[in-house]
Amino acid sequence: MLGVVLGLPATAAAAYVLSRCGVGGDALAPFARVIAFAAVFAGLPALLSAGGIGRVAARASASQPERPIRAAILAAVFPFAVVGAGLVILTLVPLGRLPPTPADWALSAGTGMLAGALCGAILGVWLGTSPDNATSSPA
């Protein structure tokens, strides 16, 4: 569920910025339309990807009890960055205009990777600070 809560707004924001800059999509589309397209075309992939990445991050956090947050962040940032690139492209394509040049495709993927890495870092912090990782001794 966190993939939808974090991933879709980040994907929609990245696609919105890219479309406003003329890289792809519809430059006149309001943000509500962009987030609706992100939900329709990237919602299920975001949900499934975040579930798998969350599982990997939770395992990494549990395997590193001395630094669970760091382990969870490192386990989640890179895969979610790759997912972010795909989610942004899945959102831009149905908005009406494909990126015209290879450089614009690379910019689209890079912007998606940045949004995805941010989501992965938040996911890693959230999973790394779970109550199961707290080491409290009884008083």
Q: In angstroms, what separates the terminal alpha carbons?
A: 36 Å
Bulk shape = elongated
Mean pLDDT: 87
Main sheet properties? none
Quickly count the helices.
Answer: 4
By helix and strand content, what is the structural category? Answer: mainly alpha
Q: Are there runs of 5+ residues with pLDDT below 50, and where?
A: none
Report the sheet-strand fraction: under 5%
Helix fraction, binned, reads: over 70%
Order of helices and strands, N to C? HHHH
Write down how many β-strands occur, each being a DSSP E stretch of 2 or more residues.
0
The Cα radius of gyration reads: 17 Å
User: What is the number of domains?
Assistant: 1
Produce the secondary structure layout.
Elements: H1 2-20, H2 31-63, H3 68-92, H4 102-128
Helix pairs in contact: 1-2, 1-3, 1-4, 2-3, 2-4, 3-4
